[in-house]
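Handout, section B. The chain below has 324 residues.
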Amino acid sequence: MPELSVWGGFLLFIGLMLALDLGVFHRRSHVVGPREALGWSALWVALSLLFNVFVYFLYEYGWLGWSELASHRLSGREAAVQFLTGYLLEKSLSVDNIFVIAMIFGYFGVPPAQQHRVLFWGILGAVVLRGLMIAAGVALINRFDRIIYVFGAFLLYSAVRLLMAGEERFDPDRSAAVRLVRRLYPVSGRYHGSRFFVELDGRRTATPLLLALALVETSDLMFAFDSIPAILAITRDPFLVFTSNVFAILGLRSLYFVLAGAMEKFRYLKTSLVFLLAYIGVKMLISHHYPIPNLVSLAIIAGILTVGLGASLLAAGRGKAASK
């Protein structure tokens, strides 16, 4: 019962925030400007840090009987460090997803006023899918402890794949999700406001907005295959894994609108993600012999991200100066 109370309270809080987001603040479709996006980004970061304070007291003092559960016998400090490290890791890995979302919106010519709606429903679906994947991942790693080596090797492979990836031609029509939508429904040749479906000639017809949504969902599912094993290197506590994931994902929408118009300024972020994936992969592979403390991991992840951001902004500044 204590576990149900905490999980239920968290899900209720997230549900209320999403209802306020779509039902109040974004009830009418509009273009999300940089100032609004920065405000929402700051809000989600602040909520994440406040929740981390709650995590500390939850685990340190066993609120609502939490400490009676064998799976949650972490100190408040350990739990808070694990949540913050997982949140920062997931936030960093989500940056690559932003680049893909920008390509999807560009390919389908999604009107700026409708982009928030696509991201809202796409990320809501991502929360559900990741919850299922987290449950499966935690169950696997608890039942077959040695599978951590498989996860570690997979993350190293992902790092190499990301490093070697060139500028691939983006062709959504080859996506299984797009082909499935086209097989199930006729697709309108134009947008109809914020609607995913319309009635045309007496037939239920999908709009291009639904194709964009299907691809956003698919892209997050693919990125989850990297991010879920990565966070399991930080913590195996299902509550910490899920909550850090959710806060990182929910902040992705506003982060997209902050970065979308300036993607070229962050050219070295992908390189920093290579080092992130490689580090987490190595951490998993040596975890049984040389476990790396999560406080050290937090510092390393923050350092990698800071270097990537700093190098990107420095290069962008030099390019701007050279163009004058």
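Note. The CA atoms of residues 36 and 254 lie 8 Å apart. Compare this with the example in section A.
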